Amino acid sequence: MNACGVVVEYNPFHNGHYYHLQEARKQTGADCMIACMSGNYLQRGEPAIVSKWTRTKMALSGGADIVIELPYPFATSNAEYFAYGSISILEAMGAEAFCFGSESGNMDDFITAVDVFQSSRHQLDAKISELMAKGYSYPKTSSIAFADIGGQTLDLSTPNNILGFEYVKASVLNGYSIRPETIQRKSAQYHDEELGKGVIASATAIRKAIFSSSSANTADYLPSPSYDLLNEDHSRFNKMNWEMLFPFFKYKVLTSTKEKLSSYYQVEEGLENRIKECVLHAETFNEYMTALKTKRYTWTRLQRASLHIFADAVKEEIKSALKSPPPYLRVLGMSKAGQQYLSHMKKKTPLPFVTTLSKFSHPLLELELRTSAVYYHIAKKSSGTVFNEYAQPPVMFDEREQAFKNS
Amino acid sequence: MNACGVVVEYNPFHNGHYYHLQEARKQTGADCMIACMSGNYLQRGEPAIVSKWTRTKMALSGGADIVIELPYPFATSNAEYFAYGSISILEAMGAEAFCFGSESGNMDDFITAVDVFQSSRHQLDAKISELMAKGYSYPKTSSIAFADIGGQTLDLSTPNNILGFEYVKASVLNGYSIRPETIQRKSAQYHDEELGKGVIASATAIRKAIFSSSSANTADYLPSPSYDLLNEDHSRFNKMNWEMLFPFFKYKVLTSTKEKLSSYYQVEEGLENRIKECVLHAETFNEYMTALKTKRYTWTRLQRASLHIFADAVKEEIKSALKSPPPYLRVLGMSKAGQQYLSHMKKKTPLPFVTTLSKFSHPLLELELRTSAVYYHIAKKSSGTVFNEYAQPPVMFDEREQAFKNS
């Protein structure tokens, strides 16, 4: 079998994601599509609007054959570690290619950019340090520095080009055999906040519509199974965003000493003092973040630091996890074709597959379950029953019947 | 001036407390009544139904002249440390006597019991160890052991006799000059759960009535200023009990590793494993506690361990605090007479008075403020403004006008 990987968040799964899966399958000729997907927390340092289980169902009903969970430290990290974790998983899954959407759409641009990076690494680092000393955020300085040293062929100021560059870099630097491919993104831009007129809108705009009190209809922008799954999820669980976590985050910050706060990943350079101060007077997450934001840190960087406090993710724990590729392959769901591919891969991959939680243990999985348990605790509507991830088998999807089994 | 101390929780301040203050003043001939009062968390390891500020107002309008805060580690500890902390504060306040309510009512019984304790300490410890090895709880074994070695004159199975014994013991063992006195308690028993027919009911029964959906009227059992203060408080803040803390406690346990849980005070002998397990399936605090309870630990002991997890109170922090008497005297409120007494005492006491938080710092006070901030965070009704303890001056009460100033 010929597998192609994609790196995704599906927050939620929309028409653009559907298009990407179909095109990637066509372009690579794959008969198995593997989605390496973030769990309940995402790269921008925030909770997913619906749980990984609902998003797994969306993915399977939208064309993915296997969904593998990207562990928390990678899923909530900057583009570099996010890419390192996910491409390592797709390599370990034996995918022949991975295919990412980008603003550029031209694979040569990425290959050239990684070449430039490899040959000018020290020069680049020096330039970044110089710019950061002036108080700019990391993403901004790195894009300027990169253009400066001759990486002009690829615009590294757009989010999907940045991610694509990191995917290709991770694969080249680690000597992986997986082949990178790219597809130009259609219509919507990643950061677009409003629903447009086409059938493709950004996940950001769709989430904004879902949370807004206006009756903006998102049905046009989501494949119908995805739309139904979203509504079904929201009948049992709260729509999750940072505002839902905030009362707990505030409790956590209020009960923690500054020393303790500084033990969490990405809480550095005295950030604990400002976090303590800003949380005390804030009634909402937005108030807190607005007070906390400075030129030095991006909004995302501050969300990530806050998420690690919320999740009790300490520096050593995350740093040690990020040193090596993810050490296991946790299967969240599969189609019939995915199931075939998995039984075929079981003998080939060096990493253990995790389908039954009680049969496997690892500190990284323990962290995943801790952060997940608290997601369900907060997402659960008061009338609901306790959701126990230990009792949750992988989602099984029958593509011919378009139905989920034992889930 | 002649001051008499009382050790109190006032949860809430009721007719029995009023009677106790009047009788203690009469019996000791004091012209200044000093209440050493727990802050927002109490000896049974639970939050107070209303904050320390409202309870301070209740105390001042009910006959107290000065209210001093008993710091968290002592206020939430067993009878021995609770007594050590509070009697040390009253000694440092220069009170000539302290006066406690007891089932016995006979001071000689307490003096004899402390003599027996001093002369048979080793024998007593051996007997307690022997009984505890059989799996009984500490309060039970110590009462049996004490009767066994000849302490029959005082019944140490009743809660106020136990506390009284510890008060007298603390004063004798530390060579304090403060003189112990006792008053027999009227009518209600500490543990009574129902409102009786008299004007005195236990605080337990009053709280039960307040939380019950029935329209049981508590006005008969509270002095009218206390009743009004309670209602006024509940128009701005939630009625606090463990159920209010539980969602946050559950979040805390779910996000903590077992190793981290075992770092909290009183989480010992593998209790962290059972706490993790019991919290996962519990929807309410009562469900959690019912699942957690065994013969080995009293309900109170388990509430205390849970409270320390909630409050992020680690072993070293509490153990080191309990080694010495409270290191400062934090004034929560005063009457005119109390104000006079305080200015007179300022030159005499070796300990610093704390009235303005920004002018004093101590790790113990920092712990107090952390645990208090989270109390207000949870107690606050959604429409309320953020309560900031740093901005709260001591409550000033004019007994002639029966009014509060600058509070």
TrEMBL record, chains A, B:
Catalytic activity: cytidine(34) in elongator tRNA(Met) + acetate + ATP = N(4)-acetylcytidine(34) in elongator tRNA(Met) + AMP + diphosphate
Any single GO CC term annotated in Swiss-Prot or TrEMBL for this entry: cytoplasm
GO terms classed as biological process: tRNA modification
Coiled-coil spans in chain: none
GO molecular function: ATP binding; ligase activity, forming carbon-nitrogen bonds; tRNA binding
A UniProt-annotated Pfam family: HIGH_NTase1
Residues annotated to bind ATP: 7-20, 101, 160, 185
Keyword Transcription: no
UniProt KW Ligase keyword: yes
EC number: 6.3.4.-
Compartments, record wording: Cytoplasm
Role according to the record: Catalyzes the formation of N(4)-acetylcytidine (ac(4)C) at the wobble position of elongator tRNA(Met), using acetate and ATP as substrates. First activates an acetate ion to form acetyladenylate (Ac-AMP) and then transfers the acetyl group to tRNA to form ac(4)C34.
Family: Belongs to the TmcAL family.
PANTHER family on file: TRNA(MET) CYTIDINE ACETATE LIGASE
Protein name from the UniProt record: tRNA(Met) cytidine acetate ligase
Gene field: tmcAL
